[in-house]
Design a protein that fits this description.
The chain is of the alpha+beta class. The protein has two domains: about 80 residues; about 50 residues, no CATH class. The chain contains one helix and nine strands. The strands form two sheets. It has a five-stranded antiparallel β-sheet with strand order 5-9-6-7-8, with no helix packed on it. β1 and β2 form a beta hairpin.
Amino acid sequence: MKLTTENTESTETATPETDNFILTNAEFGPTDYQWRVHSRRLETERDKFKKKQRENSKGINRLVKLNETILEELIACRQEREQEKAKARWISTDLALPDDDATVLIHMADGEVWTGFLDAGTWRYVSGDSIEAEVLHWRPFPEPPEVAK
């Protein structure tokens, strides 16, 4: 049987091993064997494409999770830094007062800075003497540095 190749004007004798193009029967079109070969080729290409899609999807999902993790860590770090800044700020005595007997740094109207505490509404130095000057601001002591053991 004489078979022709698509996209070719010449008539050639084709074999089933030919895989560059679909062979067609001059009178009836492609043979069943040729359709099966072509179908398998298409399925293989489709499977390769789907595998690449899955791999890309997994990679994208990993990147999204990594970005979310990094963002969460950055937010936590920023919150921690803001808390540290808040601890380091001077607090006006008009806005808030420390807990009674909590030793804090105090800033007085004459510009001096001392350590002291509030005792039932009276500011005192750590020695227990009452403070005569007006206390304008206070702040808690910073955390001590970590020492490697």
